[in-house]
Amino acid sequence: MILKGRAHVFGDDINTDYIISGKYKFKTLDMKELALHLMEDIDPDFHKKVRPGDFIVAGRNFGCGSSREQAPLVIKAAGISAVLAASFARIFFRNAINKGLPVVECDTSAIRTGDELEVDLERGLVRNLTTGGQVEMKPLPGVMMDILKEGGLTEYLRKYGEFRL
Amino acid sequence: MGMTIAEKIISRHAGREARAGELVVAEVDFIMGQDGTTPLAIQAFREMGGVKVSHPERVALVIDHSAPSPVEGTSNLHALMREFASSQGVRLYDVGWGVCHCLLPEQGHVAPGDLVVGADSHTTTYGAINAFSTGVGSTDLAAAMLTGKLWFKVPASMRLELRGKLQPGVYSKDVALFITGELTADGATYLALEYGGEVISDLSVEARFTISNMAVEVGAKAGLMEADAKVLDYVARRVKRPFEPAEPDPDAEYVEIREYDLSDLPPMVAVPHRVDHVKPVEEVEGTEIHQAVLGTCTNGRLEDLEVAAEILAGKSVHPGVRLIVAPASREVLLEGMRKGVIQALVEAGGALVTPGCGPCVGTHNGVPADGEVVISTANRNFKGRMGNANAFIYLASPATVAASALEGKITDPRKAMR
To answer: Which of A5, B56, B93, B129 lies most in the core, judged by the most C-beta atoms within 10 Å?
Structure first.
């Protein structure tokens, strides 16, 4: 699977409250509605800047904080095709894979907002089409790759009925 | 080579020896969901083709984050949880029971040596009673309800030896904040923390929960302690099934062992907008506050309310401050009433709200105004956390919060206790 889009760059320790604030997420399961509030507390107009297929790019510890699965769901609903970060908080990382949102651990330090990126999940490569740079991504454990290939844990369990390591 | 607490507990539940870094499928002893995460889990459960929860007696659903419901959308999600619990024969703790992380150990659902998952990041709390308990998302919660199992990567462990004797006016919250400042927000990502040393053994079980609760604030997957006599006494009164505590082997392998002498630790405060931005109270003393919050899964237990009541008894909260009191459970509320603790807090000007998460997650019960400053006993002070991105949240112990509520500004509790 090769993904193409523009980068939206954020810093370190982007927590799940920033991704989707608690004040919205308890009221509805409508992710399209929640997507209007993506990153609202740190960039109020963010949802307007996203074009389908774009990437969120961040530093260390992306998705720290709560276990809310609305975080990856809202990112997906907003049209983001993958999140690239230097590192991820573990619950967010697991939730993203479980919901079929690709999460890519790689060196993001050279990526700037607006850069055109090409992410090749099969070959494990991130190419920066704007600068010509290229970085490798950290491979996913086998079980996570299998879950992602099925489109998420729901689809995986519907198919296999149990976890297969 | 010996094993850590995490390796032992996961190995037992996987039915084979498993070391740090290995992936296993393991059976879980208990599964928890709350009202912010369970509705999505019910949706996922049904989409997985789920008909029956595999072990209904191992599941508890708790309505605590927006309880009682402030708006119709939330009410409908609560109704979905009630319907699911009733049709599946699953235990539901409805509005008024309290915060999931206070309830589960209190009601005897968690025992030493258990493997527990909860759809809430602060599920690390039960590590204080020697359970490997960790936060998961809604779809993992659904998978655990459906299959009774989950896949885990066995985490490597970091051991923290906490030496010395805490000064009067210094509490487990100050220890938890100190550790968060030392390790930083991602200092223990993917790791299990193991806490030991005389600081831990001197603390009550209630106080220990505060430290394990905040393990996730440094990215840890679990915050484990040993099951000493205090823990065994705590669970003997509550747990009705057999269990097997897990001790670390003397030659267990750790990625790092850190030792801290906390004899001179002062009261600590986390300043906006990061939990790991921690300072001694004296560096922020005098900061004007508008709201003080006593409660949450971190510090809403009886001991916490007692410490605050001692400081506030017979006095009045500063006229410029709203003091919100949210006991962490009905049992805490009832016991606090019997002991006169609630009386003292309310007489001092406290506004008592339903046992539950209170204003911590920004849904209701005290959303601050623009520019306002809050001091809270909670575990997170992210911008917008309490429902307003233009407010400022400081985190501290119940004693520091009570002393600050009296003075209308951040205050060293040792001054109020003299």
So the answer is: B129
CB B136 within 8 A of CB B144: yes
User: How many angstroms away from the CA of B74 is the closest CA of chain A?
Assistant: 5
CATH superfamily of A2-138: Aconitase, domain 4 (3.20.19.10)
Q: What is the mean pLDDT of chain B?
A: 97
Supply the DSSP symbol for B344.
H
CATH of the domain at B363: 3.30.499.10
Q: What total of structural domains would you count in chain B?
A: 2
Answer yes or no: is pLDDT of B418 > 80: no
Are residues B145 and B52 in contact, defined by beta-carbon separation less than 8 angstroms? no
Which amino acid, one-letter code, is at B216? Answer: V
Q: Which residue among A25, A41, A66 places its CB closest to the CB of B121?
A: A66
Average pLDDT of the segment spanning B262-274: 98
Compute the nearest-CA separation of B361 from chain A (Å): 6
Q: For chain A, which ranges sit under pLDDT 50? A: none
- Type and span of the H or E element at B60: strand B59-62
Instruction: Read off the pLDDT of residues B37-95 as tens digits, 9 standing for 90 and up.
Output: 999 999 999 999 999 999 999 999 999 999 999 999 999 999 999 999 999 999 999 99
Which chain B residues are within 8 Å of A67, Cβ to Cβ? Answer: 37, 119-121, 123, 135-137
Residue type, B23: L
Structure confidence at residue A128 (pLDDT):
98
Interface of B with A in 282-341 (CB under 8 A): none
B248 and B347 part of one domain:
no
In whole angstroms, give the CA distance from residue A153 to residue A40.
28
What residue spans define the domains of chain A? 2-138
Domain that holds residue B326: 271-417
Structure tokens at B393: 């949240």
Contacts of A45 (CB under 8 A, 6+ apart): none
ipTM over 0.90: yes
Q: CA B29 to CA B134: how far, in whole Å?
A: 12
B324 pLDDT band (50/70/90 cuts)? very high
Q: Is residue B266 part of a domain?
A: no
Give the pLDDT band (50/70/90) at residue B368. Answer: very high
**Over 90: is that where the pLDDT of B358 sits?**
no
At B342, list the tokens: 């609630």
DSSP per-residue codes, B205-273: HHHHHHHHHGGGGGT-SEEE----HHHHHHHHTT--S-----PPPTTB--SEEEEEE-TTPPPEEE-TT
Task: Kindly state whether residues B247 and B293 are assigned to the same domain.
Answer: no
| Residues sharing a CB contact under 8 Å with residue B226, sequence separation 6 or more, in sequence order | B5, B130, B196, B245, B247, B248
Residue B265 resides in a domain: no
Assess contact for B235 and B129: CB atoms under 8 A: yes
Look at residue B417 in the predicted model and tell me its pLDDT: 84
pLDDT tens for each residue of B227-258: 999 999 999 999 999 999 999 999 999 999 99
Residues 218-237 of B with CB under 8 A from A: 219, 221
Q: Which residue has the tokens 């904040």?
A: B177
Interatomic CA distance for residues A110 and A123, integer angstroms: 20
Partner residue facing B219 (CB), from A17, A22, A89? A89
